[in-house]
Amino acid sequence: MIITIANQKGGVGKTTTTAALAINLSRMGYRVLVVDADAQANLTTALGVTQEQASDRPNLFTLVEEIDDPKDAPMETAARVWLIPSINGLAHADLHNKMDRERILTRILKPLADKYDVILIDSPPSLGLLTINALAAADTVIVPAQTEAFAVDGLAQLMDTMAALRRYEVNPNCDIGGVVLTMYDGRRNLDKRVSSVILEALGDVVFSATIPRDVRLAEYGETGDISLIEGESNGAVAYRALAKEVSERWLRT
Amino acid sequence: MIITIANQKGGVGKTTTTAALAINLSRMGYRVLVVDADAQANLTTALGVTQEQASDRPNLFTLVEEIDDPKDAPMETAARVWLIPSINGLAHADLHNKMDRERILTRILKPLADKYDVILIDSPPSLGLLTINALAAADTVIVPAQTEAFAVDGLAQLMDTMAALRRYEVNPNCDIGGVVLTMYDGRRNLDKRVSSVILEALGDVVFSATIPRDVRLAEYGETGDISLIEGESNGAVAYRALAKEVSERWLRT
Ligand SMILES: Nc1ncnc2c1ncn2[C@@H]1O[C@H](COP(=O)(O)OP(=O)(O)OP(=O)(O)O)[C@@H](O)[C@H]1O
Ligand SMILES: Nc1ncnc2c1ncn2[C@@H]1O[C@H](COP(=O)(O)OP(=O)(O)OP(=O)(O)O)[C@@H](O)[C@H]1O
Ligand SMILES: [Mg+2]
Ligand SMILES: [Mg+2]
Asked: CB 3.0-4.6 Å disulfide test: which of B10, B27, B82, B103 passes with B74?
């Protein structure tokens, strides 16, 4: 099962959600691969892999340029989560001139799909070709939605993009499989307003687990300390509940 | 004076900083033009212009495609801030195949530069060609830095990009003119750790004004209600102080 984590709005928790889901699903016993499809490589950093280390081995750039074999790319990180790391150089990969350029990532993941129970793809804050590749490769898409400004316009635009992927048959199944409300601060009326708008529009796919604003999750981003995800803070508990919902929605066949 | 607001990390306050600076500088008596160089058009939305309105008139897409004349592009918005709006279609503009493609925006702004005291350019969360254009056009660059994860790596990568713009003489003056710490939460040790790292590395260009996390600023993003920027909340007061520093650093000749 390939799940892409996407939202072109910046800083809404895509990377944190990808890491937390990966760690939790791995702890639940699933064999998990994460793919860092963002040239900024925040997920790679959070999982404890430096740019130097990633550059010295197969990474998404070398796979895109067909220098390395996808089967040699996954590396094991904390909590037994496997990672295809990104490097900043990915920003200069010549994606635009490749054949069937929307499905480069789909082709890279094909030989790996049956080796893992779940593959999670972290994508950049844009609707450019890397994100299009991540959406094209997906069996389903999880959208982290921060309960703040620009959230709702962003969702509409993302859905238009997915509709185009279906229409052109780049990925006939491309659709939002789940929305997770993130950085929710229940004391602010803003968050309640925005979440009710999202619930009204997409209620049937919004996960019950809502991720609260939690300094422990911000600290996880800073340190990559996995104990912050495995701990008992409100945010960590919420991501565990989300992992359970994801498992029930797609992984327990 | 052309000032680009840039940081490839998502959700660090680029758009909010651009809007707040523009409104405050205009209130101080400067003639202000803002350019929304992000296809997600959050700044355009915040300043009260819908995608329908923007599509029906000159906008950055039509200027890039040389359909309209730059002199016809600015539109007046609240607080007498002039705006060149963006439309989502900008994501599909064919920038990559244009001649001298890093300086499309520089050329667009040339006939406008002496009509305004200050031009502010809001850029997207990426180091792609739109951001490169925004950096190439800049006399100086302001970097909003959220005091959280990934902030410091992001700054290093942005500085490498600016160095490349200087080295290739796309913009020999491209450099960080100022860093503003944003969404600072003084109760968290994380924010203190990250801000001290930034101060140590770039202390001489960090503005004294630090923007605190303030729900009024989040509400401004949601509503575009200018009274939230002109009000007395901690965030609004901080942005007024920032505008004063920006004025003193570059605009009072
Ligand atoms: N629930 C939360 N509570 C507090 N901080 C959070 C939470 N989730 C994420 N963060 C922090 O918010 C910031 C943005 O999160 P993250 O980097 O995961 O978002 P993103 O959507 O991947 O950003 P980008 O668009 O730049 O890729 C990071 O500093 C992260 O540590
Ligand atoms: N000081 C602040 N306090 C609270 N919320 C803020 C503050 N500054 C900005 N915000 C909110 O944080 C979110 C991100 O801010 P903003 O959109 O300005 O960042 P950005 O860097 O332009 O994002 P992107 O990378 O997606 O373009 C928005 O919802 C905004 O309303
Ligand atoms: Mg991310
Ligand atoms: Mg923005």
From this structure: B82
Given this model, what pLDDT does residue B253 score? 60
Low-confidence ranges of chain A (pLDDT < 50): none
pLDDT for res A253: 60
Residue-wise pLDDT tens digits, B62-94: 999 999 999 999 999 988 999 999 999 999 998
Mention every residue, 6+ apart, whose C-beta is less than 8 A from residue B200.
none
Closest CA to B233 of B223, B220, B247, B246: B220
| Protein residues with C-beta less than 5 angstroms from the ion ligand 3 | A 14-15, 42
Residue from the list A46, A149, A222 with its beta carbon closest to the beta carbon of B221: A149
Q: How far is the CA of B40 from the centre of ligand 4 (A)?
A: 8
- Of B59, B77, B78, nearest to B67 by C-alpha is B59
Q: What is the DSSP string of chain A?
A: -EEEE--SSTTSSHHHHHHHHHHHHHHTT--EEEEE--TT-HHHHHTT--HHHHHTS--HHHHHTTSS-GGG--EE-GGG-EEE---GGGGGS--TTSTTGGGHHHHHHGGGGGG-SEEEEE--SSSSHHHHHHHHH-SEEEEEEESSTTHHHHHHHHHHHHHHHHHTTS-TT--EEEEEEESB-TT-HHHHHHHHHHHHHHGGGB-S--PBP-HHHHHHHHH--THHHHS-SHHHHHHHHHHHHHIIIII--
Best mutation target, B215, B216, B217, B229, to test chain A (most A CBs within 10 A) = B215
